[in-house]
């Protein structure tokens, strides 16, 4: 499918030789195992902001800086990790890394905002998923409001009654859910209505180049989401014009390069400290509002 095709073209960029299909996948599997063992994966964090630039949350995004293969895109290594089952230990590693990062920020006296962690379908379908999450947060002494879980429509709709059970257990423990890449999975908001979902993340294909004249579908999604008690996050906002339209449509939050790329913790910290993306420690990326 799409991500897979994207992965192949990325692989051509990152590998000096030709893409070798399964042979290349095997190299990536070996690299994932090696980096899990060595603890050399990294987590970057992208701010999720109000349209005014105030930071309301972060998304944790895994990075794979391999010493010889170079930096491999998640579009390549996440599908390989899913197919090989390695996404289970890898996903657990991300969650633990996020928990220890939150504790570090707490120690530094930085203001804490919820961190959203991506959960793949395989991980979510483990029989002990909800207790694993709760136990991990407990063992790091992290309040459940500080970790949100991102699931795709496909993940939650694959086996609705089991998914609902797991989500309700976690929700009862104070954990919030977001639906990632909303709009790409052919589901309707109606099917998600019964689930404890706090946020919809509108896929960036809906955001790209949005104008007042082309905003009907997004306007409808936002008002329906609001009627169902969900907040809407627009993904992949890059342009000032897109931000203006989304603001007009009452979109709750914005995630995209217009505010910040995903950043390593050290580079994120000044933004976290100020609670805003447009802080004087960086070059503004668009003229300050007057
Ligand atoms: P996602 O969860 O939808 O994450 C958002 C992706 O959009 C990230 O790509 C982010 O860098 C990118 N993005 C954010 N703002 C912009 C923008 O303004 N313009 C453009 N063009 N892109 C933007 P990234 O980091 O390459 O991750 C890709 C996907 O890999 C993620 O999509 C997610 O599905 C998966 N992924 C990343 N980390 C993890 C993880 O820890 N676990 C799992 N299961 N999946 C992960
Ligand atoms: Mg996500
Ligand atoms: Mg997304
Ligand atoms: Mg996406």
Could you please describe the fold and organization of this structure?
The protein is an alpha/beta fold. The protein is 47% helix and 18% strand. It has 13 helices and 9 strands. Strands 1, 2, 3, 4, 5, 6, 7, 8 and 9 form a 9-stranded mixed sheet that branches. Helix 12 links the parallel strand 8 and strand 9 (253-255). The longest helix is centred in the middle third of the chain and has 21 residues, at 87-107. The protein is globular. Bound molecules: ligand C2E and magnesium ion (3 copies). One magnesium ion (MG) is lined by residues 180-181, 201, 235. It comes from Terriglobus roseus (strain DSM 18391 / NRRL B-41598 / KBS 63).
Quick structural summary:
The protein is of the alpha/beta class and 290 residues long. It is 47% helix and 18% strand. It has helices at residues 2-14, 22-38, 74-84, 87-107, 121-124, 129-139, 153-158, 160-172, 189-192, 204-207, 216-227, 240-248, 265-274, and strands at 42-49, 55-66, 70-72, 115-118, 147-152, 176-182, 199-202, 231-235, 253-255.
